[in-house]
Design brief:
The structure is a single chain. The protein is an all-beta fold. Helices cover 1% and strands 42% of the residues. It contains two helices and 64 strands.
Length: 781
């Protein structure tokens, strides 16, 4: 028997690691836009559907596109679609995909081949001995000519109701796959509407009645076979009814189009043809200047959403339970001004189909603040609270600018003031983070080439008129630039200077004397002192620039820890004391570090780096939420580290973070987290995280020696047995994880059963290469 390579079964095990992200509907929504730049055929998207696997399907004018969180797969008429205009997609309970187009109804076969692929297929693939090559799309029409299918609905029996340009049809599919259309007579009067045969929208309510919109008329098919008609005579205001919805409470809603306008109708849930069908009309008088109402959806939290030609409207219950709260979201909030459709994914994120593309609104995203919210300048320089819990943000126009503005947050917006520094102060230095203080007495300490001490005022606006006392630091007359400020538990003010004079100084509150501690620290010359934090024992920790190490000030003496003694390398940018008393260290080169016992004589660090899932080893800021999860700011956004499990969740500008490196992180007394960069400010209200649901993983590609083998368009959970020839040694497998929220960053682990049962290191790569091994088979004697 010749040598043979065998992989008895390619059973590929994967874990996809993903956390979730939530929507805080404020001024600037956390929006990420997908358009032609990301692979869509056109920017205008008119349809959105998410299937049971987690794929997001959308129509963008040239067929239908499928999004797996990484890339778009586009299907067009060249692949077998009946028409480029797609109006609806239905996945049946049995897993069959039906696509409504202007040229007929298409059944999608994920294992089939497109037109071009079928033409290029070899004869050997399609002979009597081999498998039949099935088309990717099969087109169905109930008449000899092609008609437009507008909407699809599967009923409890598995039959499919089809709203078409030629009326209502019912499609029955037998177990053997045979399909049969039956025309359903609606009996709409010929004069009722210009397009009296064209059915646009469908709804099956909880009572078993089927609602159909036929132009300006509503038709209701009852379970007993009776047909009811409702028109202007029953209170309908006119205009085509483009969308129907039954909400969680059983209310029936309809959205209309008439000219350039539209109205939202609340209908009687169980109407009577002898009475009006409209319970209430919402329009311009209610703040709903909607234009066309293209689609109605309700999210799991009970909010009703209307996708309109003027934006996205939210209709939410109000406190009086009578008048709903109506809010418009459009370009002002980061969305598009014209919206066609929307859907909610399994994690509660909103996906919006618009003329700008497909836009994802993160459910628990970050709320952005800028000049429209009262923020004076957008280069964030510091975030802090005073002893009364008032939140302040210091900001500037950038490096080299004269002064910082101080912005007080009132719970909704900011109030900005520029302190009254002497006119000779033309530059306040390049320090950030711990650079400004309102001390425990309410007095202000503001830096320059000296320290300016302002008296306590009742209102922040008084800083613009008050006259400060000048505290001369050592070296002030040699242009010693104040770089960091910190008030310790005794009320003393620590000052780090830079520029022409590097020093660590302390203003002693009891005496008013400035003490220079620089020489006592033992750090090399020209070392910056970069961060301060006191631990629970009253020890003061001080970070330094590269080469200086980490300092601990205890009992009036400094102890210096170098990298040889365990200090992280590079600049120590930030120090943070968490709820458990652990000291966290942000290092420029050494990642995220933690000292469990800051009081111990020796320095023992637990380090998190990119090898543990962090996005960068250059950490710029640190804070935590009320559940003890650590948030590390960096140039690539914010990483959330669950200390208990070690899992890491990555947040980016797509979640609403400001662009640029996140140099500032702060948790306020209400539990909200604030993040700042040189480009703006964001607020995040975290939620307690339940155990995450692991994404579903599908095998999407198989290649042997670089030659692709057939795999379902929707992916496989298993691949068949492979017999490899002696010269076939390399096998590669592609895979994708479909999480609750598409677009999340997912990391994977895998192993090949029977070859190496150890999980791989976590990776973002979605292809693995396997090397087959030879085995000798010997004939018996």
């Amino acid at each position: 028997m010749p040598k043979k390579q065998v992989i008895s079964r390619l059973l590929f095990h994967l874990i996809a690691l993903c956390l979730t992200t939530v929507v805080s509907f404020a001024e600037q929504l956390p929006v990420k836009t997908y358009s032609t730049g990301e692979g869509l055929p056109r920017d205008e998207v008119t349809l959105l559907r998410q299937d049971s696997r987690g794929f997001l399907w959308m129509a963008a004018g040239d067929g239908i596109s499928r999004f797996d969180g990484y890339k778009f797969t586009n299907y067009a008429t060249t692949d077998g679609l009946a028409d480029r205009r797609v109006n609806d997609l239905l996945e049946t309970r049995s897993g069959v995909y039906w696509i409504a187009t202007d040229g007929g109804l298409c059944r999608f076969n994920p294992t089939g081949l497109s037109h071009s692929a079928r033409k290029n297929a070899t004869v050997s693939q399609n002979n009597d001995k081999g498998p039949t090559i099935e088309p990717m799309f099969v087109v169905f029409n109930p008449t000899e000519k092609a008609i437009a299918f507008n909407a699809l609905l599967e009923d409890e029996t598995g039959d499919i109701w089809c709203a078409t340009s030629e009326g209502l049809f019912k499609l029955a599919v037998s177990p053997d796959g045979a399909s049969q259309f039956r025309f359903v007579e609606l009996g709409v009067p010929s004069g009722a509407a210009p397009n009296s045969r064209s059915v646009v929208a469908l709804l099956k309510d909880r009572h078993g009645a089927l609602w159909c919109s036929v132009g300006e008329v509503l038709v209701r098919l009852l379970p007993d076979g009776r047909v009811e008609h409702y028109s202007k005579e029953h209170g309908l205001p006119g205009g085509s009814i483009a969308s129907l919805l039954e909400d969680h409470d059983g209310n029936i809603w309809a959205g209309t189009r008439m000219g350039l306008a539209g109205e939202l109708l609340m209908l009687v849930a169980v109407p009577d043809p002898s009475r009006p069908i409209v319970a209430r009309i919402y329009g311009a008088q209610d703040g709903l200047t909607a234009g066309w109402i293209n689609r109605l959806r309700q999210t799991h939290d009970g909010k009703l959403w209307a996708a309109c030609s003027t934006g996205l409207y939210m209709i939410a219950p109000s406190s009086d339970s009578i008048t709903p709260r109506i809010q418009l979201y459009n370009a002002r909030n980061g969305l598009c001004n014209s919206v066609w459709d929307l859907t909610e994914d399994r994690d509660g994120n909103l996906w919006v189909a618009s003329t700008c593309g497909t836009q994802k609104v993160a459910r628990n995203g970050f709320t952005g603040y800028g000049p429209a919210d009262g923020l004076g300048l957008t280069w964030i320089n510091s975030i802090f609270e005073n002893h009364d819990g008032a939140l302040f943000v210091a900001s500037t126009a950038g490096l080299g600018y004269t002064q910082r503005s101080i912005n007080l947050f009132d719970g909704t917006r900011f109030h900005s003031v520029v302190p009254n520094l002497p006119s000779s102060v033309r530059y306040q230095g390049w320090g950030w983070g711990q650079i400004m203080i309102q001390d425990h007495l309410g007095e202000w300490w503001i830096p320059g080439f000296a320290l300016y001490h302002f008296p306590k005022g009742e209102r922040i606006e008084e800083l613009a008129r008050a006259h400060p006392q000048v505290i001369r630091t050592v070296g002030a007359f040699n242009r010693a630039e104040v770089f960091r400020l910190y008030e310790d538990a005794r009320g003393d003010i620590w000052t780090a200077t830079t520029g022409l004079h590097f020093s660590l100084q302390r203003w002693e509150r009891a005496t008013g004397i400035v003490h220079d501690h620089t020489a006592e620290t033992g750090v090399p010359p020209n070392t910056d002192f970069t961060a301060f934090r006191e631990d629970r024992s009253g020890n003061l920790w001080v970070g330094t620039s590269e080469g200086g190490g980490l300092l601990r000030y205890r009992d009036g003496k400094f102890q210096r820890f170098t990298t040889d003694e365990g200090a992280p390398p590079g600049w120590i940018i930030w120090l943070y004391l968490d709820h458990a008393g652990r000291l966290w260290i942000a290092s420029q080169l050494g990642g995220l570090n933690c000292i469990d016992d800051p009081g111990a004589d020796a320095l023992r660090l637990k380090t998190y780096t990119t090898a543990d899932g962090l996005s960068s080893n250059n950490i710029r800021s640190i804070t935590e939420d009320e559940w003890g999860r650590i948030y590390a700011g960096m140039g690539r956004g914010v990483d959330r580290v669950d200390v208990e499990t070690g899992s890491v969740k990555h947040f980016t500008v797509a979640d609403g973070l400001p662009k640029g490196s996140i140099e500032h992180a702060y948790r306020d007394r209400q539990g909200a987290l604030w993040f700042g960069s040189t480009n703006g400010l964001s607020r995040f209200v975290p939620e307690k995280q339940e155990a995450p649901t692991l994404p579903s993983v599908y095998l999407t590609g198989l290649r042997i020696e670089g030659v692709a083998k057939p795999v379902s368009e929707l992916g496989e959970t298993d691949l068949p047995m492979l017999d490899l020839a002696p010269n076939q040694r390399q096998v590669s497998v592609d895979f994708v994880g479909l999480g609750a929220s598409l677009g999340e960053e997912i990391r994977y682990q895998y192993y090949l059963e029977g070859a190496n049962d150890r999980w791989s290191a976590p990776t973002e790569e979605r292809t693995t290469f396997l090397l087959a091994t030879c085995s000798e088979a010997v004939d018996p004697l």
